[in-house]
Amino acid sequence: MQGLKAEEFDFVIGTTKVVPCYKAFAGERFRSGQTKGRKSEGASTVSLNHPLAANPREAGETMRKLQYVLMMLAVLFCAMPAFADGGSTAINLVPIGAGIGMALAAGLCGLGQGKATASACEALARNPGARGGLMIFLVLGLALIESLTLFTLVIILVKVK
Amino acid sequence: MHGSFFLTHILDQLFGGIEASAFQSIVGLSASEAAEKAAGVNSALALELLVVGGTIAFFLLVRLTLSVEKPNPAQQVAEMIGEFTGGLGEQIIGHGYEKYQSFLTCIFLFVLLNNLIGLIPGVPPPTVSPWVPLGLAVPTFIYYNYQGFRAQGFIGYLKHFCGPLWWMAWLLLPIELVSHFARIMSLTIRLYANMYASDMVTLGFFSLVPIGVPAIFLGLHAFVSIIQAFVFMLLTMIYISLATTHEH
Questions:
Q1: Do residues B222 and B128 share a domain?
Q2: Spatial separation of the C-alpha atoms in residues A88 and B82, rounded to whole Å
Q3: What percent of chain B has pLDDT over 90?
Q4: Which pLDDT does position A59 carry in this prediction?
Q5: Does residue B78 sit in the same domain as residue B184?
Q6: Residue B203: which pLDDT band, with cuts at 50, 70 and 90?
């Protein structure tokens, strides 16, 4: 049964280069789990001449794997012309740059604010009486840290048309 | 240029001509050029005037109905505001904070109400345009420097810029000047960018899901409004306290 499966795959995508690794992957899958399931179901006798059509679940899985392979191939072969095109027409990198800048600013601002808030919480736990003064300086510190991110935002707004 | 609000339209009809005539008489442009240059009254200015009028009306009402035995709700609200800013001022500026409390309360209420007016759907808060925060930051800068000169004397306040060691003054004076002028920028951009971002978030989610979800971001907007007004006032207090404390 296993041999038949492997041949079947060979038959389906025999022309592509991906087959060897894919065959190994499929064989491993079928050896480990799938055969047991089939025995318990007792469906092995049904799959006579076309095992893919006989068991709908297996056929579905095969189709899914095929889909992955084809998608990978599509990416591999379609991406090349896309990259090749980049030379002739200029890619607009401004939104990407703006996104990276904003992400860096927001992420590092988050780290800084987290550190400030953590220290404030610790201080408050040690000395609950200092609540008023702590709140003022916490809010002030958070606003000052946050404004650095907002400077980035403003620069992006000014520079990106 | 002309906003779509009823109030903006009326104000523009009433006072929009003043700007054009000022261009005509002061700058010396012809009538048609002046009409082109003049921006008229936009919605931010109209909303600011609305806030100013509302605040003045509220405090006039409080002033006229002051009573010790039977304080009415308006008086209690005014007392709450006064206690809040006074308590904070005492904590940060210390003794003699009463001199500055009126300016601080004005700044706080004006920023707060200008931010919160954006909670009405379809009304952009005036602080979303960068000129409004700039118009608040420049008087703040002038005010704390004026108070610094008044409290420490002309020479004393200038010494304050030069740092503690006289032979380091050539290095510290430019740094101090830049850092003081950067305060205008940071006050402006902090308020403007916060309000702009929170307004944009609300609008963005409104365009994605028009029902229900934007209400959450209106809550966020309210929170940001209060925090930013608080921070603006707090920074003004800190600048005043830095400018007026004597070093000794």
A1: yes
A2: 66
A3: 45
A4: 73
A5: yes
A6: confident
Output the six-digit token pair for B194.
């916060």
Q: Which residue, among B90, B186, B191, B225, would best test binding to A if mutated, counting the most A CBs under 10 Å from its CB? A: B186
Q: What is the pLDDT of residue A20?
A: 46
Q: Quote the minimal CA–CA distance from A71 to chain B in Å.
A: 31
Torsion over CA of A124, A126, A128 and A130, rounded to 10 degrees?
-70
Rounded CA gap, B184 and B182, in Å? Answer: 5
B77: left (phi over 0), alpha (psi -120 to 50) or beta: alpha
pLDDT band for B233, please (50, 70, 90 cuts). very high
Minimum mean pLDDT range among A18-27, A107-116, B213-222: A18-27
> What's chain B's average pLDDT?
86
Tell whether B36 and B151 lie within a shared domain.
Answer: no
Which of A140, A147, A150 has the CB atom closest to B234's CB atom?
A: A140
On whether both B48 and B119 belong to a single domain, the answer is no
Domain match, B60 and B81 both:
no
Domain that holds residue B209: 70-244
How far apart CA B189 and CA B25 sit, in angstroms, is 34
Q: Which of A139, A140, A147 sits opposite B189 (nearest CB)?
A: A147
Q: Which has more confidence, B22 or A139?
A: A139
From its phi and psi, is residue A115 left (phi > 0), alpha (psi between -120 and 50) or beta? alpha
Cβ–Cβ under 8 Å, residues B21 and B34: yes
Contacts of A139 in chain B (CB under 8 A): 227, 230-231, 234
Taking the C-alpha atoms of B87, B90, B91 and B95 in order, what is their torsion angle to the nearest 10 degrees? -170
The owner of tokens 């400030």 is A116
**Per-residue pLDDT at A41 exceeds 50:** no
